[in-house]
Write a structure and sequence with these properties.
Layout: H1 12-21, E1 27-28, H2 29-39, H3 45-57, E2 61-64, E3 67-70, H4 78-85, H5 89-98, H6 105-112, H7 118-123, H8 127-144, E4 149-151, E5 154-156
Antiparallel strand pairs: 1-3, 2-3, 4-5
InterPro entries: Double_WHD-containing_halo
Pfam families: WHD_halo_double (PF25947)
């Protein structure tokens, strides 16, 4: 299963903090959002929901019957989980890896735009703006996970 939600990038230490904030026993989404808002600087339920989904993608949180809980043994390598389980990450990373020169986020978007499914394009009128932001976030998370590097010239392998 691939997850589409990609929150604004933060340091990896935030992933650990957010994971530890969630209960060990399954709890409702509302309760988990409340815990994230109380114990971190997340200030809205929508952002808290994004983080729960992202933590699931990274293998840190599990879901059962609509309730969420932190895994007793979280995934060791979140970078691998990110690459394998977050939608479009592989395509974005391959684009950067195959380029002989550093690429700006806009250049990466232009190179992957043909890979964006038609249903995503039809879903909203501002799909390009949404996907520009999504690609930027994927690139920044990839930098955070040391999958690629960022310099003044752009993103590169």
């Amino acid at each position: 299963m691939r997850f589409k939600v990609v929150p604004e990038p933060r340091p990896q230490s935030f992933i650990e903090t957010a994971t530890r904030t969630l209960p060990l026993v399954p709890s409702s989404e509302d309760d988990c959002c409340g815990l994230l808002m109380a114990d971190t600087d997340i200030d809205s339920r929508d952002v808290a929901r994004e983080w729960i989904t992202f933590l699931r993608a990274l293998g840190q949180v599990k879901e059962t019957d609509g309730k969420y809980y932190q895994r007793r043994t979280p995934v060791d390598d979140v970078a691998v989980a990110f690459r394998e389980r977050v939608y479009a990450t592989e395509t974005v990373l391959q684009t950067v890896e195959e380029s002989e020169e550093p690429l700006a986020a806009t250049d990466v978007f232009e190179r992957v735009r043909t890979e964006i499914p038609q249903w995503e394009r039809n879903r909203r009128q501002d799909w390009e703006e949404v996907w520009h932001e999504r690609v930027r976030r994927l690139l920044e998370w990839a930098v955070e996970f040391d999958l690629i590097a960022r310099t003044a010239d752009g993103y590169h392998n």
